[in-house]
Write a structure and sequence with these properties.
By secondary structure, the chain is α/β, with parallel strands linked by helices. Helix content is 19%, strand content 30%. The chain is globular, with a radius of gyration of 22 Å.
């Protein structure tokens, strides 16, 4: 009987179990999860869950699907020749392997007195500390930083944010777009263009020499694909695990999906590291199609993610390059959006602010490789395809 081993206790791992069974796979499925919890959804950790409004555990019925779930079982190494995943409890053999280990937060220099909201335990720990008067220092005016700031302010905390760049979300969206978000941070002591030297026992030390006291320090400076355990495995790794459009690695028996994978995009003609929930949700279906004997199907959806911050919903679709042209789409009643186009005039990405219908149209336009005219780009009321 064929055995598929899935490494990773997040959405991609759970969806891999579901899609394999849905496509008729009757072999053995083993799910290895590093945390003590069953797989859960990560985006709410800095949204509703941080406010105590949502249980993030996924509703997959592992017993009904006959899944051998092994929690608190981290992968420590991979022997592709012997087809074995190494764990502290011993090796786990596989016929096919799906790696869905996600990404690990980048930690700041200094003491361990810092939180990075990547796990459910992180979210619970931070939630307990968010009480009126708590001094919270966020490092990074990032997507995560904005969401944590929103929750902290709602809890009555005093929030300071240290951002090395010139604007919030500047690293993700560019300075021009990022500066439009500065007013949203009006209740936060936002320090732009300043770096953190280290986290100390009493707060953070800045590169300017200033010391900022903090009861809680939250690192929101990004993540890296969790690939350290794959050293010596022989898999091709470039930022993350390199896979083709079918999510197959350089080893034909090994697949990777979600935040850990750098996948080839036929539409974009480039490798993409898509660290978004939607990619982890949809990618496993392509792998299941291959493993159940179907014709391999390229996994190349238009990337999508959302963020709830300061009373607004941001929805981003596509993937833009630093060289793409930025077009701000202003509307009435303060509504606005942003489009990115490449040198050939192709719409590559779109950011919608409190306008879900725009996101739907933009995603379809990007998928269709549309070249919107200048009037449509600047007029938020005009369709993009």
């Amino acid at each position: 009987m064929m055995r598929v081993v899935i490494v990773g206790g997040g959405l991609a791992g759970a969806r891999s179990c579901e899609t394999l069974r849905a496509r008729g796979f009757e072999g053995e499925i083993v799910l290895l999860a590093a945390e003590k919890h069953l797989p859960y959804d990560r985006p709410p950790l800095t949204k509703a869950a941080l406010k105590g409004e949502l249980n993030t555990q996924l509703r997959t019925d592992y017993d009904a699907l006959s899944i051998d779930v092994r929690t608190a079982t981290a992968a420590t190494g991979l022997d592709t020749s012997a087809r074995k995943v190494h764990t502290a409890g011993g090796p786990v053999e596989y016929d096919a392997l799906i790696i869905a280990t996600g990404a690990a937060p980048i930690r700041l220099p200094g003491t361990d007195r810092q939180l990075a909201v990547r796990t459910v335990d992180d979210s619970y720990a931070l939630r307990e500390k968010l009480v009126p008067g708590t001094k919270v220092v966020l490092v990074g005016a990032s997507w995560i930083g904005a969401e944590v700031a929103t929750a902290a302010l709602a809890a009555g905390a005093e929030v300071t944010c240290i951002e090395f760049g010139p604007a919030p979300l500047g690293n993700a969206l560019g300075e021009e777009v990022g500066k439009r978000f500065v007013d949203w941070w009006s209740e936060v002591d936002l320090r732009l263009g300043v770096g953190v030297r280290e986290v100390t026992d009493t707060g953070v030390s800045l590169t300017t020499g200033e010391e900022i006291p903090a009861d809680v320090v939250v690192a929101g400076v990004g993540v890296r694909p969790d690939v350290a355990w794959l050293e010596g495995s022989g898999l091709e790794i470039e930022r993350g695990i390199v896979v083709d459009e079918n999510l197959r690695t350089s080893d034909p028996h090994v697949f990777a999906v979600g935040d850990v994978a750098v996948r080839w995009s036929p539409r974009s003609s480039q490798p993409l590291l898509v660290e978004h929930w939607d990619d982890a949700r949809t990618g496993p279906d392509s792998i299941a199609q291959t493993l159940t004997g179907g014709e391999p199907v390229a996994h190349d959806p238009v990337p999508y993610f959302w963020s709830d911050q300061f009373g607004h919903k941001l929805q981003y679709v596509g993937h833009h390059a630093a060289t793409d042209t930025v077009v701000v789409r202003d509307g009435v009643d303060g509504k606005w959006a942003v489009a990115w186009i490449d040198e050939a005039g192709l719409l590559t990405a779109h950011l919608s602010i409190d306008t879900p219908k725009l996101m739907i149209g933009a995603r379809a336009a990007i998928a269709a490789c549309s070249r919107p005219d200048a009037a449509a780009l600047r007029d938020i009321t005009q369709p993009l395809s």
